[in-house]
Amino acid sequence: MLSKTATTFLLLLALFAISISSAGQSAQSNSERIRQLREEITKRQTADVPGDLVELNRSKLIERRAELRTLLKVEIDNLRKHRTLLGSLITAEETQKIDDSLRDYAAEIDRLATEITNDLAAERTGGSTSSVPTAPTTPQAAPSVTGNGGDSVRSRVGGSDSSLKSAGAESPAAKAAPLLGSGAKLDVLPAAPSDQKNAKATLDCNGVLDGKKTASELDKMVCGLARDIPQRRASRNSSRNEILLAGDVPFELIKILIAKRTTPKFLVEAEEVRLDKQVGGAPSNAGSTSLTVKGGVPAILGFAVENGGLTKSTDGSSITFRGNPVGLINAFKNRGFVTSTKADENDPILRFLKKTSFAFTFNTDRGPQPGVFTGTKQQLSSFSTRIEFVNRRKPRLYIKDWEDFLSDQGQHLADVINATHVKLIDDTDVNGLKWIDPKMQAWFEETQAQISKATDANVSAVLQTRLDQLPVKELLPSTVQVLETIEQALGLYMSGRDDVLNKINSGTLVTFEYLNKREVNAPDTSNFNFIAEKGTSGGKVDFTFNGSLTMFNNLAVLKNFIKLNPTLPPARRLRDFQFAGQIDVPLGKPTEFGNIVLFAAGRYQRLLQNATTELGAILPNTKGDIAYLQMGFKVPLKGTGFKIPLSVTFANRSELVKEKHVRGNIGFSLDLDTLFAKLKPF
Amino acid sequence: MQTKSPGIFQVRDGEVITIDVKSTGAQTLFGVNYSVFGGGSPVIEGQPIKVTMDKSKAQGNSSIPGAKSTPLTLVFSFSSNSGGKYDLKVSGDAGGDTYTDFTQQAGKGPKAITYIFHIV
Description:
Mean pLDDT of chain B: 94
Helix content of chain B: under 10%
Order of helices and strands of chain B: EEEEEEEEEE
Distance between the termini of chain A: 49 Å
Strand content of chain A: 15-25%
Strand content of chain B: over 45%
Largest interface: A-B, 65 and 56 residues
Strand order of the largest sheet of chain A: 3-4-5-6-9-10-11-12-13-14-15-16
Number of helices of chain B: 0
Number of strands of chain A: 16
Distance between the termini of chain B: 11 Å
Low-confidence stretches of chain B: none
Largest sheet of chain A: 12 strands, antiparallel, barrel
Oligomer: heterodimer
Number of helices of chain A: 20
């Protein structure tokens, strides 16, 4: 306690010295120092501070904020003096500018006070800086030191709380407090506004906009506003956060009002899922959990671990790496997902290479340490390459549909918003806009007041609390009428957009894949697979079709083997042919269950040669027809790129054993596109 | 063009306003519509919007003596699931301020910006 008190006392002394010295600075150096302090504070606030330096950083922030408050007060004094000096000579424009600056400075001083209070509270508890103001609910008198018109930080002498005085608003308690010394006075901080104290973020916006959480349109709009407010403050170099009634805020508020008033499906339901990517290995691999191969591949790299063995009667574990060479090179070059995508479109060679992909599958049961992935050549059980012939899922192929949508529903929405603007917002005053509906205006003013005092860190909490208090049920009938008109146009717009995007997502994909399967003792094989994929027009269901041939790579090896076993039929180059189909259907509402996909698949295989075991033995009388039926779920861990496929497979026989059987399969796959797009989108 | 407040401008009667919109975020089909004076159209990518500020068509009142005000609305569409962003620059052919702005995707729905022009 003693050491904390001493530290605080020294801090006060330092701040007092800063206050005194600041008062003597010229206006020019004052402005420059203010700029520097703002910069430093922003950097310190946003820096990813190592654990060991958190307390020190917080302490520096308190000092810098206190210094900035002092300098801002000096600026306020200077402005007032300037106004008095000019008297009647001052122009209306200058008066306006001075008033604006005084208002901005006062708001910034208040905001700094709140931030210092939070930091002091965090320092006291030893916790991280709170995102919600934690100032005491009632002002508490405590000794502090202040310069002439300068700043002050209340000390915690005797265990009392620390807080700050609001700019130009001295409380009666402060005035009545005993003096500490010449020129020093007792100073009291105002409590944080009650709404800010109670502000609580019910929604973790960090997980909403980047797709880590399943979220409704409403959630995303709320989080989008919370994200944009500090960003706009920074881009305008403004000292305080604002929720402006110009720009894109009014329409966001209108959409939120609509969502809260009538909960239309297009604003309150969550997004759905993409069904076309193949991440895992081919069905013939030891541990494969799927009967078909999908047409799409990850743009960078996919990774799958599977355990099962659908087509053999022996179990196996496989690890598959599947990726795109261009995507990987871009990733290694540290180029962003979007930047690289745009740049590659302009290069014909890269455009071609982007249609290709590769995969390597390792059988972890091979090698000197079965069950351990070593990545050696010995464990490499197959490699494959594929090229995309047809991809009708590229948005640029649907420009005409998109343009039609913009000309129709897009333009209708723009015209409706423009025409109804004057019915919602009074735009007469060049200095600011007002809601025509008094309830909305009152709500807006209070929200503005609270946002202007909010730190960047607690804008989201304050905004969410205020949005929960939107006067949805108290709106004027004329306002409701306008909202209904906009809702109708917005509904048509969303429906039109969905139609175009569903058309894109249901486009045809045709791919050819070559797979070289490396056996330990049996002859190696080559598989040539045509993969076709098509979605339904509604974009809800995805169909996949595979047709393939498998051939022996080296017939001589097989012939030699048969020579030693003359009872076996003569060897032929063609091993088998196969047809397979799969249907994927997203299940239920994503908000309730996550983006779970139900899939059902069937596969027919005609084995033209007797099957060969892992040890190289040919099993007689194993030629014939094999049919598989599979049903299962893919459970994605949203936003992570991870998926867990769970399935059960029924078969009339396997390649090696002519008996009916039922198998369960489980695996997990990771699509690095998802992670990469999040870590480095641009 | 003079910026009076964020998103509120004073322009001369007959001044041509240029709004240059660029898609700068996640790859998305370009989708921008504008509406002013009761009409508008989709915006072609790479071609800035040019609107002549005609005081006789403006319907709104203004705190500037003798001026009339009109809203200009831009609607931004996103084909991407997330990460879409548009950057804007608003300027007038009579010189003065250039106003920069942006709007970012938040969900699959559209964003809309309405600017107010006071025509003197």
